[in-house]
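Sample pair:
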Amino acid sequence: MSEQKFVLTFDGVNDRVELSKGFPSIEKAITIEFWAKGENSLPQPTSILWAYDAQNTRILNIHLPWGGNIYWDAGNQTGYDRIEKPVQLTDYNIWTHWAFVKDAVTGQMYIYQNGKLWHQGGGQNRSLSPIQKFVIGSGPNAAYPWKGSLAEFRIWNQARTQLEIEQQMNRRLVGSERGLVGYFPLNGDVNDRTTAANNGKLYKTTWTEAEIPIKLETQQQSVLSFDGKDDYISCGKGQSSDKGLRFLNLTQTLTLEAWVNLGSYQGGAIFTKQYNPGEADKPGQPPLDKAAIFYGLFVEESTKLPKFIYSTKDKSNVVFGGTTKTEIALEKWYHLAAVVSNQQVELFVNGQSQGASKIEGAIADNSDADLLIGKRHVDNSYFTGQLAELRIWNIPRTTAEIQANMSRRLESIEPGLVGYWLLEKGSGEIAYDSCFSDSFGMIAGATWSKSKLPMAILSRKEKFSYAGKIGDIRALDAFKPLPSEVHPSARWLANFYQSAYGLGGATKDVLVRQVLMENGGDLTKIPAKLPAKQIATAPENLTRLRPDKYSDEFFVERRLNGFNPGQLKRVQNQPWQYVIRYDMGGIQKIDNHGILPKLIEARFCLEGQQLTPHSIEYTLFGETQLQTQRPGDQDWEWAKKLFRCTEFLYHETGIHLGRLHLNIDQYAMAFYRNVINNPIQKLLEPHLEIVLNMNTRGVFAILGYKDKDGKDVDGAVTFLSCVDVDNMYVLIRQELSNMTYRNGNPRSQFLPDYVTNNHFDRSASTMWRIITDYVSRFFANNRASIQSYWSEIVGMSEDLSANSILKKELGTLDIKTMQDLQDLCVYVIYNSTFYHSWVNNKQFEDGGDVDYVTMSAWKDTDPLLAARHAKQILSMQNLTSVRCNLIMDVGSAELKDAIWKQRAQIEPGLPLDKLMMSISI
């Protein structure tokens, strides 16, 4: 049923709407969309929209129609770009949704009719001059008046995609959607629903009753429901910053925000920061105040009003309930906020201040107190109702900031945001924190449900937006909240923190919190913490257990089966038959203490069914002399170590990060941005589930970054190697520019000759065949459904083509046919499962022994050598030990069965208990 009661009707004589303000900041992209029903007697020369600049130059114009054509004009003082197409009366004399799009960067202009592409044109690169005046319903000075009715008029400062238009054309918006700069439902008024308040002025128009297919302003969204008996979320003490300060230890300034739908006034606890009753007192210090609520947001049972509770060093549980009395009704959504700043607290309901009051001193230190959502320990009371969109800031938010953002998902990890629980995932037992503080919560009892939350729903492409420029390595914007579709599972979190920190070794360890909830908060049930991991206590790796690790035979075996397999290339007309070459010539500089070849080549002879080393040739950075070392030479062992160290660097950057993490990242981005209903969602999602999360959160930790002053901040790999961030990306781009699913068959990596101890080729060919057959059966069973949702594949194809850095001679990553899609699926699953599992799991075998290999050769004068060695061992161990999604555990029965039957061919190259479903770390 339509939710539009009135529409705005124009008589075709002199009716129009003029907006109170222009749009001076729209320059590169614009989308205008509306519902329209033209009259049969509509004059042929009409303008339904006209916008011009301060010099009265036409910037925008839509003729709907003019002389039998629809025209879409957009430009500046030098002229305007135009696309046009003949139109029939039946195209516009019934209620029709129109969208007009211009993208000056790509030069494309589009017209969409009812969500489908109706017309387009290229080469339209004029930018837009600042719009001074905007008129709806006629041209300038009431000329060319349009006759008909309008509704749901929207103006965006971005080029909306077909999928975005189609998803929201029948939906009433909130007004806070990303990129929406003008929103006029035209349902009885011409007010702008965005924060710009660019309201219109009517000239002679009338309101008439009509029905158009527009849904409710609020839609069913996932929220978390609490039963008031024993449901809550435990966020523990929160994570610490790199300086050891807890993000949630707030004492001077803070802002708490929450959307609340109260089911009962009893309890009413939303946020509570207090000690767990079982927390032990610290020796030599005063007893902990277990009754104190350091800061908390509640709804008072007796008054039905919001209140803020805080504790100082001298006073516990001081209550402030505001001075304006806005009662919180049951079964209705409210936005509540509390702001502490300048020794005062202010409460807000739906963005309106409820008054402020002085607080009696700073909030007491609460670094060791727990953050609870939906519960307080003091009287063991619980919240009843639904919660959504919870935020904690370490800064005071202004009234304007609260009002502007309360009905929208945050677009970025904004400064001061230290806790952000969207509670929109709809499944699982983790309340994921979408900001960098990573203070995820364990859900105890609370259940997922649907409700008409008055929050703007982001489209997939808004959630999964690209960072960087076209031509760069494009990935999920790391400064945006992580979308719930790729939040980590409880299984992954438990595995990660246990592997990285040891059981109980992290303050926010998911296992500790799970034990607490399962045992009524009994701290004695937590396992004893393990000692900090040191080099001496790190598990032995393969090379440390091999007395022959420096032998030539072992050197050959690791080139065949180590962490960087498939690099041996057959050569002709040389004394050797195989070669591995690493070209580092693109690197511009290295650390002064590092040793790295510009080019290094290891050669091997084929003797029967065995490979033997022939020689290693290299030229070092800073030198011009070409050096060649052969078995038996004085520096042969040094040459082998130099080769191993160079290979290790290329493995971590080009292969592990480039060919696997960031290569599969581009497929995951295109997949999550577009695929919703297509059956390949079920096929691919289990193999892509964690890669975007891991890459987004790990890029700074692994590669490092440049700070606001342009100074390099080391990540794990940059600290371990002699190459900085910029030059790391040289190696990554070098590899990524050659990666396409069209040449993804690992056959190109295989040796053309049989070598007895070559396990990789046999394992890889077996897994490729298993996955190819698996995908073929899926397509045979789902071909019709895949075809019926092919528009999603078109969107995926467009994203892949536009955002890859593939070399021009290799074409694009577009998906033209069903066979292309099938090949892509095989490629993604193979690399996400077998190839990454091999590369990842071999890291500690080789890289866990700093005597055998380091991620660059180093001079003895390096002052950080010992620290680099310790970091390498711990990093390689952690990277290898996180295995939360083993195929033989969580894979489909069909895939597990096929792999089990072929295990003799896959092992000993890669044990099945190391084979993962997706890229996880």
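The radius of gyration is 31 Å.
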